Amino acid sequence: MNNTKKIRIALDGPAAAGKSTAAKKIAEKLGFIYIDTGAMYRTLTYKALKNQIDPKNEQELYNLLLNTVIELKPGIDGQLVYLDGKEVTTEIRQQDVTQNVSDVALHQLVRSEMVRRQQELVKNGGIVMDGRDIGTAVIPDAELKIFMSATAEERARRRFEEHQKQGIESDLHVLQAEIEKRDHIDSTRAVSPLVKAEDAIELDTTHMSISEVVNKVTELAADRGAV
Ligand SMILES: Nc1ncnc2c1ncn2[C@@H]1O[C@H](COP(=O)(O)OP(=O)(O)O)[C@@H](O)[C@H]1O
Ligand SMILES: Nc1ccn([C@@H]2O[C@H](COP(=O)(O)OP(=O)(O)O)[C@@H](O)[C@H]2O)c(=O)n1
């Protein structure tokens, strides 16, 4: 008899703190579903740019979103992302999407529709969801909330290394400036800004390895019955 509790784990934090890497592995260990909500904002941004919609135009973005199907499906190496039936997993990581996504994610209308869709995805439990407002807006009653941080220098270094491995040319200082700019927009927006939920456990991963982070969160999940 399996008594594992299908809890909901909310993982928030700034860019490149290691959320999706950890979330994917934690979900694997627990047999949970992993959901990267950033991919949903990225997919809308990608479609908006393709359709020459201004990321500042809330009403047009909202209309576009209402006519957009975003699907997240488990793949061999993480989550696959589909836009209106076409796979866009790689495309949504492109630089122009990264540079515009925080402006798209500012808008009340966009966020309320995204949150509505995300809440549908979590209703059966057994999930690890990562983003910026998961513990504060999407699953305010999550059984486990983690706020994952690391210094901006370390986060930029991680993204830089990731780019190097993928053969993408980038400059460490430019990357850090981009990350800091996005964090600033995300943390200062009026609608569900990036903040630590009062009841979230803060995890500074600056000096932690990926497996240390995964083990720590898995331990906390086990304390809440998820084993
Ligand atoms: N604790 C860690 N130590 C070193 N590198 C890490 C750690 N966590 C994540 N990384 C690496 O940092 C990069 C960014 O991680 P990612 O999970 O994409 O961050 P986020 O989802 O928070 O934006 C990835 O290349 C990942 O392999
Ligand atoms: N729950 C979420 C998730 C992402 N986002 C927005 O989407 C952007 C991209 O998120 P992401 O998780 O893919 O970012 P990375 O840290 O992986 O680069 C963030 O910078 C936020 O502007 C959000 O507003 N709320």
Can you offer a commentary on this structure?
The radius of gyration is 17 Å and the shape is globular. It is an alpha/beta fold and 227 residues long. The longest helix has 17 residues, at 172-188. Strand 3 and strand 4 (78-83) form a beta hairpin. The model has no long low-confidence stretch (mean pLDDT 95). The protein contains nine helices and eight strands. It starts with 7 loop residues before the first strand and ends with a helix. It has one domain (8-215): P-loop containing nucleotide triphosphate hydrolases (Rossmann fold, 3-Layer(aba) Sandwich), CATH 3.40.50. The site of adenosine-5'-diphosphate has 16 residues, from helix 1, helix 7 and helix 9. One of its GO terms (cellular component) is cytosol. Keywords: ATP-binding, Cytoplasm, Kinase, Nucleotide-binding, Transferase. It catalyses: CMP + ATP = CDP + ADP; dCMP + ATP = dCDP + ADP. It is found in: Cytoplasm.
Task: Please describe the structure with a list of short key phrases separated by commas or semicolons.
227 residues, alpha/beta, Rossmann fold, five-stranded parallel sheet, three-stranded antiparallel sheet, 8 strands, 48% helix, globular, binds adenosine-5'-diphosphate, binds cytidine-5'-diphosphate, kinase, Cytidylate kinase, CMP kinase activity, ATP-binding, P-loop_NTPase
